[in-house]
Batch of 2 targets.
Target 1
Amino acid sequence: MLKLGIDVGGTNTDAVLIRDSTEGAVLGVTKAPTTADVTGGIVAALRDLRETTGFEPGDIAAVMIGTTHFINALVEGGSLAQTAAIRFGLPATRALPPLVDWPQRLRTAIGGHSFLCHGGHEYDGTEIGPFDEFEFRTVLDKAVQAGATSFAVSSVFSPVNAEFENRAAEIIAEQLPGAPVSLSHEIGRMGLLGRENATIVNAALRDLADHVTTGLTRTVAEAGIGAPVFLSQNDGTLMDIDYARRYPVATFASGPTNSMRGAAFLSRTPSCAVVDVGGTTTDVGILRNGFPREASTDVSVAGVQTNFRMPDVLSIGIGGGSHVAQGADGITVGPESVGYRLTERALVFGGGQLTATDIAVAAGRADIGSAGVIGNSTRVAHLDPSLVEGALARIGARMAETVDRMRISAEPVPVVAVGGGSILVPDDLPGASEVIRPEHFAVANAIGAAIAQAGGEVDRVFSVSPQQREAVLDEARQEAVDRAVAAGARPGTVEIVDIEEVPLAYLPGNATRVRAKAVGELSLGGDRDA
Amino acid sequence: MRSTTGNTLGPAARGPAEVPAGAHRLAPADLPALASGATLLGSGGGGDVGVPARLLRHALAAGPVPLVAAPALPDDALVVHVGHVGAPDVLAERLVAAEDFVRAVRAVESAVGRRADAVGIIEIGGLNALIPALAATGLGLPVVDGDLMGRALPRVDQLTLAVDGHQATPFAVVDPAGDTVLVTSCAPRAVEPLVRANLAAMGGAAALALHPVTARVLRASGIPGTLTACLRLGETYLAARSAPPAEFAARIGARLLSAARIDEIQPRRGATTGSVTLHDHATGAVVRVDLLDELLAVTVDGETVAATPEIIVAVDPVEHTPVRSDQLRTGRTVLLLRLPALHQWPREAARLVGPAAYGLALAPGAGFRAAGQETPQNPGAPQNPGAPQDPGTPRSPAAPQDPWAPGERGRT
C-alpha cells in the first residue's frame, strides 16, 4: 500500500512516498517552494515525485497533509473571518468577557464582536439559569448586523453539559443556514477561557479552512489521485478533510509533532530524544512509543492563551548560523545567529562572520552523515585548533545538558539528530546511548504526516464512585475508541494509548476528570466496515 | 440562616484606613512575582492563580492597591478576611468577580454594624493570595500585609486566628448569582462543615468573608509580612528559575529533597489522602509523596524528610515551573523541594495542620522542625517569630516597631 505524505511549510513544501506505515520503506522524497495559494507547491512536488519514482496515481491509498498554514494565518492576522464570540454564563463570568485578553491587532482583525448571554451549567450538569431564547436571538441579530459571518459559541461547563451550545447551533442554523458555527465542547477541554479562545480562533479560520481544504482536495484529484485526503492534528493523529474544514485549529501543533514522529520513525526508535538543529536554535523533544511528550503548561498562540496540548519542546539558542566568538570569558556560541543568511555570511561561504557551521567544517564534521560537504573548507583552515575544539566542546555540553533536562529516566537515551545544523551534534553526546542520523531527515515532517494513524480522545468530567470506577473508565475508553473509529480508524486495530483520571478537588459527588486517548490504523480501501 | 443584608451600620464606621506614605502599593507590574510566589507557597495546592491574576491585572489597571502592615493600623480598625472557597476547577469555568467578594464583605459589615477599614488575607498560598487584592479594588480599601496560614491549607478553620480561639463569625458566602448566606454565630467545629454545605448549593465554589477582627487582635494572632514575603519569593524565583537545579534551590532558599520520576499514582478519594511513588535517578531511592490538595509529606527510603505544615513543592526539572498535585503524571520527573515556613506553627497545632490532621501516621514531630534548623534561610521570607533576627534583612516596613519581638509571642 502506497501513501503520500506532504508537509506544507511556510517556505518549502515537502512530499514523500512511502510503502505501508509499519515496514516504512521510503520510496521517494522531494522539496518544492511553497506558493501563496498553498496548492502550487503541492502540484510541483507531486509532479517531481512522480517523475523520480514513477508511481501510478491509482496505487496511492491515502494522502496525508501536514500544514502550518492555519497557525501562520493567525500569527499574521490575515484571512480571518469576522467572528462573533458568544458565551453562555451570566450572571457568572461577567468580569472577563470573551476576547478580553486578546492582542488588540487580532481582536480588530476578527471584528471584536463579544457577547454574553445568561445560562450555562454547573459542574454537576444542572443549569446556572434557563436558556433565554429571546436573549440569544437578540444577540445573534446584533452580531449579524455588526458584520459577523462565523460564530464561536461557548458555555460554562459545556464539557459536562453541551445543551446550551447545541441549542445555539440549532438556532443559528435556522436563522443563517450554512453559516459556520464552532462549539467549545467540541474543541477544547475544561477551563473556560482557554477553551473559548481555541473556539474563537477556530471560528476565525473557518473561511480560510473552506478555501484551503477545497484547494487541497482539488489539487490531489487533479493529480489523478482518487485516494482520501487527511490532515495532521496536534497530537500526531489524522482527521479527514471534512473534519479539517470544521476544525482547522486542530492543525496548530502538527508541525513539531510531525517532525519528531517522522525522525523517530526514520531511525526506527519510537522512544528517543529528538535534537533538531536549525539555523538559530536547537529544539529538543522527547518521544515515548512514537508520540511526543506533552507540555504541562498552557500555551499561548499569537498572544492568545489556549489550553491545547502541545508537544513539550525545549529550545536553546544554538544553531548552524550561531555566532562564535572568543571573548574575555572564554568561547561563546550564540544566541546571535546569521539565521537564513548562513550561505552569505558564514566564512565557508565567503562571508565575514565566524559561525558554528564554520567550526564544524574546520573540524572535518561536514563530511559525516548525509550532510555532505558544506562550503569551502579552505576558508576556515586558518582557525586556531583550540578555538575549534573549545567551541565544539561548548556546543556539545549545551546540547547534552538540554537532553539531560528533558529525558525522563537516568538511563542514557537514543538521540536522533535532525535538521540542517545536525552536524553540530557530536557522536559521543554525553547522556546519549547512541546518536542516530537518519536518512531523509530533511523531510521528517512529511514522513511524520505519512505514517500517522487515526485517533480519538475524550476529556470530560465523570461522576466516579468507588464501586463504579472501572465501569466509568470503561465508558471513557469506549468513547475514545468510538471517536477513533469515527475519525477513520479500522475497528480491530484501535488501542487505548493513554488514560488518566484526576479527581476534582473540593467537589462533592466524586467528580473526576477522565481523559482517554485511542489510536488505530487508518481504514483504507473500503475496509472501514470490516 | 439565609439572610438579607440591611442591618444599619454602627457609629464606629470609619472608612478606609489611612495608609502611611511610602507603603508599597500593589501594581500590575507586581503580578508575575505575586503569582509565582503564591504558587510556590501553595505547596502543590491552593488552586491555579491564572484566572485571579487576569482579573487582578484588569482591576489594578484602574489604580494600585496599598499594602498596610497591621501595626500601622489603629487598634480598633476593622479587618475583614476574604478568600475563594471551593473547587479551583469550578473557578476555572465559572470565574469570579471582585463584586462577589464585595458582597461578602458587605454582608459581614452589616452583621458587625460597621464598615471594614482593610481587607485581610486568609491564605497566602495559591490563588487566595491574589483574591484579597481583587476584593480591595472593589471596596476601595488597603490590604493587610500578612495572612492566617503562612501557606495554602485545605480547610477554612486551619487559621492562626482559630488556633488562638477567635470566632470566625459573622461570616458570609456568596455565589456569582449573588446568593448570600450570612452566618451570625456558630461553634468553631461547625465553620468548615457549614461552609462546605453551602458550597454544595452554590455550584461548588463561592466568595467567603470571615473573621472580622480589630487590628489589635490581628497583631497578636496574624502572620505578619507574608504578602511582601510572597512577592520577594516570587521575584527571587523568577530571577533564579533558569539556574541548574541545585543552584536554583539554594537561591530560593529551598532544600532539594529529591529529583525523581513518578512511577505510580494513587489518586486521593474525597478526604482520603492519595500518594505518589517516585524513583530517584541519582540515588536509586524510593520516594513517596502523600497528598490531598496540597503535597503533605515526602518520605525517602522510609525516612520522612518533609511534612505539613512545612511547605513542599514539586517543580518541573526543566523550567522549574511548579507542578500542582493535580498535575502530577506517571512518567514525569519532578524536583521535590522543601521551602522554609513563613510561620512556625506551635506544636499544639499538630492535630490541626500536622500530618495527623489528614490521617497520616508519620513519625511524631514530623513537620514541626525547630526554628533555625532550616538552612539556608529563604531570602524572600520574613524571619520566623522565634528565630534570631537577621539585621541584614528587614522583614517588613513595620519591622522596627514590631510588637512581636522574639519571645513575646508565646507560640513556639
Target 2
Amino acid sequence: MGKVFVAGVGMTKVGRIFNKGYKELAMEAVDKALNDAGIAVSEVDYLVVSSAFSDSLLNQVDISSILAQEMGIDVPAISVNTGESSGVAALEAALNAVRAGKSNTALIIGVEKLSEFPSAKINSSFSHVLDYEIEGIRGIAPINYAALLLKEYMKRYGVKRDDIFQWAIEMHKRAEKNPYAYLRFALDLDKARNSQVISSPLTLYDVAPLADGAAAAVLVNEDLQTTIRTQPVEIVATASATAPPIYLRNDMLDMLATKKALERLRTTVKFKMGKDIALQVHDSFSIYGFLALEELGVCGRGEGVKAIGDLQYLNVGGGLKARGHPVGASSLYALDETVLLMRDSFSGLRYDGDAALIHSISGAENNAWLALLKR
Amino acid sequence: MAGSFEEVRIMKNSISIFWRKRSDFYKIRLTKCLECGKVSFPSRTKCPYCGSKNVRIVEASGKGTLVNYTVSYYRTEDSDELQPRIIGLVKLDEGVIIPAEIVDVDPDSLRKGLRVEAVLRRLKSDDPFGLIYYGLKFSPVLK
C-alpha cells in the first residue's frame, strides 16, 4: 500500500465571523492549503468535505458538489458526516481514495458556519448528534451527559471541582499563542470558578464554544510527495469505532469507542503512547479531555488532572475548548496544527518526536476516530 | 418562540414519528435479548449489545431509583419556558439504566437513591397550530 502525505494545510481564524459565509471561509482555507503545497486547484482530483450542520443550519445538502462548483473543478466530490468527528472521517475517506489509486491529489475541506442563527437554534442542531428518537425528543443534550460524567468522575476519583478547570486554563494558555484560535485570552481559576452554571456541576468554561471556521488539507501520494515544497507529514493510519450509548454502558466513564478504535489502530501500526507524544484529544467538554487522556493510556484513571501540566504537546492550538469548535472542521484544525508542529513549528512550539495522534469523538462518544501521523 | 406568522404556523415536530413511537413514549419498553441475555432501553428490533434479532420487548414497571442527575440551563429551541430542567439517569427496578427528565421536584431535594416513578408529561408542543406531544418523565414516589 502506497504512502500518503499531507502536502499543504490552511486554516481560517475561528470565531463568530459575521462578514463571511461558509463558501468564503472554505475558499480561504482552500487557497491557503493549495498555496502551502504549491499545487494548482486544477491538479486536485478528489474532494472530501466535512460539515456536520450544513444541512440543518445552512439549508445545504450535498455541500461537496456546491463547493466543487465554487472552486471551478469537476472532480469526484463527497460529503462526510459523522457528527463532531467528521473531520477525521473525511481524512480517512481521502486517504482511502489516494491509497486505492482513485486520487493522486485529494483535497479535504472542513467547514462549519454556525453563527448565522441564535444560540438556541445552534444548540438544538448540536443536540441532534445524539439519537433524536431517544434523546432529542426527550430534550436530552450532549452537555447533560457531560455533566453526569463530570459528576461521576469527580466522585469516583476524589477530583475537586476546581481541579477540572485546569483543563480550560491550560487550553487558554495554548490558544493565546495560536493566531487562528477563538478564545485568545488567559483564564484564571477565579474567572472559571465564577462562570455561570450551564448543566450542574458543569459551567461555561467547561464547554467548547461552537464557532465558525474552515480548515483544509491536501493529501498526495508517494510519487507526488517529492514534488511538493513543504516537508511532508505522513498519514500512517486512521481507525474508528462506534459504541452503545452511554446509558447502556457498564461503566459510563469508559470511552468504549475510543478504546476499540485504539485497539484497531494498534493492529495496523506500532507507536508509543506517552506524555511526550504530540496529541490532539476531543474536548467538547473538559471532562472528555481528561477521559480521553486516560482511555488512550497517556495517564492512569483519575490522573488526568495531575498529568495535564506535563503534556507540552497536548492540543497545541488550544483544543476545542479555546481554539473553538467549528464542529465539522474541528478535527481538521487539529490535523493542520499537528502538521505544522511536525513540519517546523506551531505557536512557537517545536516537536521532535516522530509520531502524533489525533482523537475525535461525537456526542457522548457515539463514535471515535483516530489518525496517526508520522514525520 | 416568537416569530413571523409563517414560523409559528409550521409544525416543528413530526406527528408521524410520535404516532409510530407512541408505545415507547407512553410506556417504558425494554429489549430483552434472548441470545446474550442483556436487557436494554428502549425497544429495538435488534439487541444493541450483540446485534441479535432474537429479542423480546418487555414492559417495565416504571419505578426506579435516581442514580445521577444534572440541573440544566442549556437553551435550545424547545426550552424557553422550561428552565431549568433536571436530566437524570434512572435505574429501573428491572436493572436497566435510562436517561430521563426528572420533574415535580425541588432540585435541592434531589439525591442519589431517590425513589422515582414514571409520570406522563408534555414533551413538546406545536401549540397553538399543531399538537401537544406527551411522553414519560420521572418524579419522586409519593409516600
